[in-house]
Every structure is written in structure tokens, then in C-alpha cells.
């Protein structure tokens, strides 16, 4: 008997990290907007992500639909629990999504509004996603597989901190993406931003690492049990942080982005390992949340065949738009 | 004041889906049109096709962007407002919606980037391929979403155990009884919508004398489409109605405004249905016609609304009137198709006149028809989320309070007002700006895909078309 639930856990985990890494850098570009040197830089920054953002965001929709298909309990507890936060996330994504088209069509005076919409929308979406991570670590109040907590249970100092953490993390993905995709003054500026963002991210990372075992007994036990392997994950993250700093000093162009992705992957694995096998903490595991085996099997057939194809043509589009983005180029 | 979370959530869903629905229905048709234009240009090398394709791609980009963001909202609404329904139907809806994402959304999104930004970066054939993939993606998407929606109307292939649906047959569930009609009806609606928008704008450009060669071609193509598809849509709609009579008799009765099951039912042209009175306050009808249409016998039996208890009746007035709105517009479309044919036969199709002034006004028609049709079918399902099995009140999120639903409803309305107000304005700016005469890399001698924009074609160094002054009101 194949354990579909375990396979699905791996697929969803993969989908989520794909979303974080890919939409992360284009949200990050939006977050960095107010700090950009000038309006022309903003044009270049937006053009560097314009062909990709839609595909990147599709991973979020896959996460939502995939959860409904494979782990409906996660879907039907988390979304009601985060109701107002989900609204903020969606409002943010709406504003930044339309800004891609509207900003280039706006008159000179109105352009600033859509720059603001892009920036604030990206920031709110990133913050909301970070808050989801915090709320997940805190856990959800449930009864009979239904959310029974209040409207603002997700809003705590701890979850706000994880929110800010992800906001800065996305900005770091954005700045290292820009190092790779731009040149001249925009690239110089991105080189300057990267170490500052990294410093900010690491300090929040540190606070969260001390705070998490205090808010969550389960995580404390997990971290300080015999499972020493778990300490390799933050060590890996620190290694990536060092790589980023070194690469920026040597003015490597691709490595900072790759190492930032590594930093995210290690942190993410650390989070998963800390909570495993709970998907709706503190009460429900993967197996409690799973949909019917025949549904998981039906979806699996398609996903196993289709996802490699999706990855192939997605990779192809990144290849089509490879190389540096230059001023005035890229828009249709 | 206490708010009912069920009612507010229904209003919220109706609001969001109405806004969302008009974008896919337009972009599905337009994507195929763009793919066709790219294909014609690839084959003939005629610049007019490239000019049209470039222009409509710009419109497509704005409309698609708005469709994407409103679609993301939709996919989260199930979980936020209808979590019990999500939990109950996840075994079917989850896989179906996931298949939509992996087979359609990724395809659209990835190739959209190449379609919009890759014109100078990939060979012409590859660009054509990207256009085809985007068009294909929109259809695959419609396939899955209508499978999901149809299943909620005519659930099949499932076993309802302990409050959860378990799929017993995927083919029966996906190809459920109303799916073929609903899918065909929506596909044709998309082509009609695309045709009316393109025809309306082309007619307006012809009035202005703007890019006459290209716009003549566009207008002509669209009018052929309308001529054949508008009557075909009426036939498909009729079949869909028969299917509704079989599987959702109460909805059909509401569409007809027919309260008592009766033989020889009249076709009501006008009526004021009242749920309190369980009858119509006033009605004007053609005797026996409803029976003839629905059963093909003058004294065939047509089901009545009061076969269902008052609590299980849909909002009859909404269903009755939105249905008439949709059908009325459908007949108007058929008339436009015939009018166009008459002008064509008289060789007056391209002479600016009344027809060219009416066509821009007709742009609104398919959108109104689509929204009205959605209201008919979705309100007609009330009070059921899954027909006859899960009601609205059973499907609602238990932790959702009335004020949360109200706050998010007001929030979405505010966000949509700003975003779609601006979107409409920019679409208008694109149309007013006119088509770009300069089409690089499209001279008859062959493809030069890598040539930069300023390289110029035969008239490549000509100044871009002057913006049109929008004196059409």
C-alpha cells in the first residue's frame, strides 16, 4: 500500500517553497520600491519581474487548491482562522497585480499612485504571509475539526515579528534578484541594500529562534530532544548567510540570489521539522487532515505527469528572458 | 445590528464572481482571436494581422491581469466563507480545482509572459505557439471550473457519507449531467463576447477612419462569428433548459414563473412573481408556448415552483428577470448578425453609418447577458450549494460572524471599485490611443524576430499613430 498522504505532504511542501522562492523575489522587488534611486530604476525593476510574476503567483493558487484536494482540514481551518488576514493578503495581491499593467499606462502624475500600490500591496501581502507562519507556530483553537477561535487570534506580537521577518526576507530575495538581473546604478544600489537586509533578517531570525521555544512547548521538546540532526538546518542557513556576504563583497552576480534561496530552504525545512507531523497544530496531524485516498490518488496521477512539464516550460520562459534587463526594454 | 453571515457571504460571493466572470468570458474569446491573428500573420505575412494582434494583445493584458487577481480571491472564498462546504466536497472539488491550476493556470501564465514580452525575443513561430498555448489554457481552465460548477448543480458520481462526499466515479462526477450544456454554452458565450468587443471597437475605428484596412478585416470576421454563433447559442440554451427541467425542475419553474405544475403552460413575457403570494401578481403570456418549447407538445406538463416547499424555493423574481434579460439580449445579438449580413450583401458593411454607431454600444450586451445568465443559474440553485444535498446554512464557516463578513464585503467592494474603475479607465485609454501602425519584423520578405523595435519595417520609421480624440460618448 502506497502512503499517498506522505507523498502529498512532500508535494504540498514543494509547492509552498516554490511559491515562497518565486513570488518572494517579485514581492521583494515591490517592497524595495520606495528605496530605489529613481523612477527609471523602478521601471527597470518592474520589467525584470513582469514576465514572471503571474506564473510565480500561480504556485499560491496551487497551494490553496492542492490543500483542498489533499489536506482539506488545513484549508478549512486555516482560512477561517485567518479570515481578516486573508482579506489583507488578497487585497495586497490585487493592488500589486494590476499595478504591473496600470503603472505603464498611467500618466506621469498618476504613475506614482501605482508605484505606491505596487509597493504597499507587495508589503502587505508579504507581511500577511509572514503572519500566517507565526500563527502556524502558535497553533489554532479547534473543536471537532472546526475552527472555534476568535477573529484576531492570529494577530500577536509574535506573529507580527514573523511577518516583518518574511517581509525583510522577501526584500532580500528581491535585492539579490536585482543584482543578477540588472546592471549599472540599479545593480550598485542592490549590492548596497543586500548586506543591510541580511543583517535585519538575521536579527529577527535570532529573536524568533529564542522566542519560539518559549511560545511552543512542542517545538522546545523537539529542538532539545535527541534529534540532533535538526541543528544542521539553522547551521545550513547561517552558511548561506555567509555565502551571501562573501558573494556581495566579491560582486558575484548570481550567487547572492542562489544563496538567499538556500537560506530560505534551510529555514523552511527547520520549520517543517520542528512541527512535523502536525499540519493543524496543536491537534491534527497530516493523517487527520488527509482527504480520501481515492481523491489523493486521482490527483496524484495528474500531478506527477503534469508538474514536470510545468517546470520544464517555466524554466524555458526564464531562459527566454535571461540576461540583464535594460532601460526601456521589455514592455510590450 | 445583527448581520446574517450566510446572507452576507452569499452577497459577497455573488459580487466577487460577477466581477470575475466578465474577465474570463472576454479573455477566453480574445485569446483565441489573438492566436488566430498570429496564425494568419505567420501564414500570410500581411501587416494588418500583426497590427490587430499587437493592439488586441494590449487589451488582453489589462483584462487578463484583472481576471487573474479577481480569480485568486475566488479560490480563497471557498475556504474563508464556506469552510464546511469545502470540507464536505473537498474529495471532489479539491482535485478538480488542482487540475485546473496544473493543466491551465501555469500554461496561461508562463506563455502569457512570452506572448506579451517575448515578441522580439523568440522566433515568430514560437510566438505563435505561445499565443496558442494561452488560448488553450483558457479553455482547459473553463473545462475544469465548469465541471466543478456543474457538479454543484447536478451532483453525480459521488457517495454522501457522514457529511462528506466520496467520489465513486470520476467520469460521472466530472462529466455530470449538466456539464456538456454548461460548458458549450459558456464557450460560445466567450466567443460571442470577444466578437462583440472586437466588432464594436473596429466599427468605432472605421467611423474615425483609423487603420481602415485592418479594422475592416476585424469587423468582417467578427460579424461572421456573430451571424453563426448567436443562433447556435439559442439552440444550445434551449438544450440546456431541457436539461434543467430534468434535473432542477424548481429552477426551471422559476425561470418560467410557473407556480403550479400544469399542462399547456403559457410562456410569460412579463410577470411580477411573489413568493409571499406563491403566485404571480400580474402576468402577460402566450398560451401554451412554454409547453411547446419545453416539451414540444402544446399540452405538455411543465413543473411548478410550489412542488418545492417555500423554504426550498429560489428567489423567483431574480431568476425570472435575469433569465429574460439574458434571452432578450440573445435575440438582439441574432438581429445584429442578420443586420450585418444584409449590409454585407448590399456591400455597405464598411460604409460608416448607423450600424457603426450601434456596434460600440453593443459591447456591453454580452457582458450583461453573461452576468444575468449566472444570476439565473446560481440563484436558481438556492437554497442549495450542492443541489438537494448541502444547503447554504450547512456550508457556511462556523466561526464566521456577521460583522466579519460585512467588513470583508465592504473591503472587497472598496478595493474592486478602485481597481476596476482604474482598469476600465486604462482600457479606454488603450482603445482611445488607437492602434500602432508601426509593426516591426513583419514585412512580407520574412521573419527578423530579433530586430530591435526601432529597426523599422516597410514604413517602420513612420511616427506612431496619433492618439484618437475620444469624442464618442
Automatic annotation (TrEMBL), chain A:
<feature type="transmembrane region" description="Helical">
    <location>
        <begin position="223"/>
        <end position="245"/>
    </location>
</feature>
<feature type="transmembrane region" description="Helical">
    <location>
        <begin position="112"/>
        <end position="137"/>
    </location>
</feature>
<dbReference type="GO" id="GO:0070069">
    <property type="term" value="C:cytochrome complex"/>
</dbReference>
<dbReference type="GO" id="GO:0009055">
    <property type="term" value="F:electron transfer activity"/>
</dbReference>
<keyword id="KW-1003">Cell membrane</keyword>
<feature type="transmembrane region" description="Helical">
    <location>
        <begin position="81"/>
        <end position="100"/>
    </location>
</feature>
<feature type="transmembrane region" description="Helical">
    <location>
        <begin position="298"/>
        <end position="321"/>
    </location>
</feature>
<dbReference type="GO" id="GO:0019646">
    <property type="term" value="P:aerobic electron transport chain"/>
</dbReference>
<dbReference type="GO" id="GO:0016682">
    <property type="term" value="F:oxidoreductase activity, acting on diphenols and related substances as donors, oxygen as acceptor"/>
</dbReference>
<feature type="transmembrane region" description="Helical">
    <location>
        <begin position="257"/>
        <end position="278"/>
    </location>
</feature>
<dbReference type="Pfam" id="PF02322">
    <property type="entry name" value="Cyt_bd_oxida_II"/>
</dbReference>
<feature type="transmembrane region" description="Helical">
    <location>
        <begin position="157"/>
        <end position="179"/>
    </location>
</feature>
<keyword id="KW-0812">Transmembrane</keyword>
<keyword id="KW-0472">Membrane</keyword>
<feature type="transmembrane region" description="Helical">
    <location>
        <begin position="6"/>
        <end position="36"/>
    </location>
</feature>
<feature type="transmembrane region" description="Helical">
    <location>
        <begin position="191"/>
        <end position="211"/>
    </location>
</feature>
<keyword id="KW-1133">Transmembrane helix</keyword>
<comment type="similarity">
    <text>Belongs to the cytochrome ubiquinol oxidase subunit 2 family.</text>
</comment>
<dbReference type="InterPro" id="IPR003317">
    <property type="entry name" value="Cyt-d_oxidase_su2"/>
</dbReference>
<protein>
    <submittedName>
        <fullName>Cytochrome D ubiquinol oxidase subunit II</fullName>
    </submittedName>
</protein>
<dbReference type="GO" id="GO:0005886">
    <property type="term" value="C:plasma membrane"/>
</dbReference>
Automatic annotation (TrEMBL), chain B:
<dbReference type="InterPro" id="IPR002585">
    <property type="entry name" value="Cyt-d_ubiquinol_oxidase_su_1"/>
</dbReference>
<keyword id="KW-0349">Heme</keyword>
<dbReference type="Pfam" id="PF01654">
    <property type="entry name" value="Cyt_bd_oxida_I"/>
</dbReference>
<feature type="transmembrane region" description="Helical">
    <location>
        <begin position="128"/>
        <end position="147"/>
    </location>
</feature>
<feature type="transmembrane region" description="Helical">
    <location>
        <begin position="186"/>
        <end position="206"/>
    </location>
</feature>
<comment type="similarity">
    <text>Belongs to the cytochrome ubiquinol oxidase subunit 1 family.</text>
</comment>
<keyword id="KW-0249">Electron transport</keyword>
<dbReference type="GO" id="GO:0019646">
    <property type="term" value="P:aerobic electron transport chain"/>
</dbReference>
<keyword id="KW-0812">Transmembrane</keyword>
<feature type="transmembrane region" description="Helical">
    <location>
        <begin position="318"/>
        <end position="342"/>
    </location>
</feature>
<feature type="transmembrane region" description="Helical">
    <location>
        <begin position="96"/>
        <end position="116"/>
    </location>
</feature>
<keyword id="KW-0479">Metal-binding</keyword>
<feature type="region of interest" description="Disordered">
    <location>
        <begin position="439"/>
        <end position="473"/>
    </location>
</feature>
<keyword id="KW-1003">Cell membrane</keyword>
<keyword id="KW-0813">Transport</keyword>
<dbReference type="GO" id="GO:0005886">
    <property type="term" value="C:plasma membrane"/>
</dbReference>
<feature type="transmembrane region" description="Helical">
    <location>
        <begin position="218"/>
        <end position="236"/>
    </location>
</feature>
<feature type="transmembrane region" description="Helical">
    <location>
        <begin position="12"/>
        <end position="34"/>
    </location>
</feature>
<dbReference type="GO" id="GO:0020037">
    <property type="term" value="F:heme binding"/>
</dbReference>
<dbReference type="GO" id="GO:0070069">
    <property type="term" value="C:cytochrome complex"/>
</dbReference>
<keyword id="KW-1133">Transmembrane helix</keyword>
<dbReference type="GO" id="GO:0046872">
    <property type="term" value="F:metal ion binding"/>
</dbReference>
